[in-house]
Each structure stands twice: as C-alpha cells, then as structure tokens.
C-alpha cells in the first residue's frame, strides 16, 4: 500500500503540472523504476518487466548487468520482445567504469571492453541509454585524475558507441561527482554520445542542492534515479537520509515542473531507498570541503521546513544489511546525535573550515538553509 501511495503522489504532482503546461502532450514524462529499488526480491529482467506492467508503468531501468539471467543474444532478444509486447521502454545500466576508481573491480576485462560490452547488451534489449558511474565519495580527494581517466575512456569508445546507437548516461553517484563535474565529462567527451543519468538523492553527499544539479545537468539528462532526501543539523555538522517520496525536503511539485522544462526527453525512474539510517555529513571536519570547488554554486537546502531523521523502513527493499554497514561506517554518530537536535528553531552557526570556506546553518520561520558560503580571497 505504501508504494501505491508514493506512485499516486508523484502521478498527482505530475498531473497538476501537466494541467498548466501547453500543450499537455509535449510535457508527458515516462514513469518507471530502477531495478535497484527491488533488488532484495532477486528478480531478473522478465519478472521485473511483468512487475512494471502490473504497476501500469511506462519504463524501467535495468541498472545492473546482473539483472539479466544470460547475456546470450537469444535471451536478450526475448527480453526486448517482452518489453515491446508490454509497451515498456528499457533504460539499461551497468556499474563502475573508471579504471582508477576504488569502486572498479580489478578482476575482469579492461574498462574499455566492459563499457562496450554493456553498450552492446543495452542495444540488444532495445535501450537507448546505458547508465554507468565513475565511483563514489571515496574517490573525491583528488577527483581530477578520475575525471580525466573517465573522459579518456569515453573518448576511446566514441566511434563504437555511435555505431551501436546507445548513449552513455553517466550518473552522479554516491558522492563521486558534482553536477558541474559531470557536465565537464559530458562536454569534453562529446555530448553526441555521452549524457547524464540524474540522481536526485546523491547530490547531498557532496554538498549540492538537488535543484542546482537539475539546473546544470537538465539539458543532458536521458534517464534518472528519483527519490526524496532530508538534511538536518547534528552537533558534528549535518546528516542526510534518503526517505519516501514526500517525507523529505525536496519540493516534488516544483521538481516536476522544472524537470518537464529541462528534461523533456528523459524517463523518470523512481529509485526508492528507505532502509538506511542517517549518514553523517561532517561539514566542520578538516578537509571535508576540500573537494568543493572554490567557485561552485553549491549547497544543500532544506526547503520549506527543517529536516529531521526518519525511522528506517526496511520492508523487503534489501537495505537492512546496508543500514548496519552504514551505521558502522559512520560510528553510529548520526543515529546517536539525532536525539540531541535542537528542534526546528535552529540558531545561526558559523564555523571556519579549511580554504577559508564557511558553513552557515540558517533557520527562519518556515524555511531553512544549509549552505557553504564561499568567501572571496
């Protein structure tokens, strides 16, 4: 029932915006989900397609090559035919492609071969795009070498990618890249074959407002991971958490309005992750903001209301084990400190951090803002 309410909520928001759009047919957005959201069921592509059809969805993203039981041409052709019969479009996907990233598996073929293999599989199932990612927040310091390696990798497959006819959709993944960095990779690699997989939940991990991410990447977006987030103050800085649609700080009606304007040709794939505890964003810790460009127009805004921690909803979404891992990684600090928050009326706090940056926590009646203020030299 909960998942139905989320879907109905988003469709209602979409309908409200569509009613104001002219003409309506030009603002239609294909709604679907990312297979990662239901990975605990261990369903493969045929079962995932049947489930998407049962929910009356338009599209689906197979974000991992593990979603396929086989990579044989005959099997992939059957998946393509099933999707066509159900009138569901497929966005394909794979994992880390940057050979220097800590997330890149050292066991297996070279990055170039893996990338081309993923693109060929995407083509075989009828996809027009294939999601992939650089790495994670563990790669941010320094991030420039990984960006350069990713650009070089993409350039090396340009000819084959154009022949295959599937766009590479680079995700802003797990705090690895800010929007302007994704844009740089797309522009320098070639926007004729590289695009964006916009993730609305990941910007908070690298101190970026999801609306800024949308504004910068909008013209390049071909597929998405859409979910809600909340950000709130804790004694050691701030904490962030992924929550059910409507439970967080993102104004979803406004997001839909902007999404329709900026990403008219993109699918909207819901990636609902609700089983994880808050994650500490130690913004006052020395070095934490070193990966934030001096001139970056960045921030994490808690729109309309001050965020607060949510009870992790596990259900069968596969995040129960991840929740324990995340809590251990953060020394359970976010969970412990949420009990000591000062409530919805925050005081203005400023604390200097490295590189003459400041972080201001501002709370006004009905509105709060968490933004790094980048000082002039």
Detailed description of the structure:
- The protein has 377 residues and is an alpha/beta fold.
- Helices cover 32% and strands 20% of the residues.
- It has 11 helices and 14 strands.
- The protein has helices at 2-20, 45-54, 73-86, 111-124, 144-156, 158-164, 179-189, 210-217, 252-262, 320-329, 333-337, and strands at 31-34, 59-61, 89-96, 129-133, 167-171, 194-199, 221-225, 228-234, 237-243, 268-270, 279-281, 349-353, 357-364, 367-374.
- It has an 8-stranded parallel sheet with strand order 7-6-5-4-3-2-1-10, covered by helices on one side. It has a 3-stranded antiparallel sheet with strand order 8-9-11.
Which tags fit this structure?
377 residues, 3-stranded antiparallel β-sheet, alpha/beta, 8-stranded parallel β-sheet, TIM Barrel, single chain
Give a brief description.
The protein has helices spanning 2-20, 45-54, 73-86, 111-124, 144-156, 158-164, 179-189, 210-217, 252-262, 320-329, 333-337, and strands at residues 31-34, 59-61, 89-96, 129-133, 167-171, 194-199, 221-225, 228-234, 237-243, 268-270, 279-281, 349-353, 357-364, 367-374.
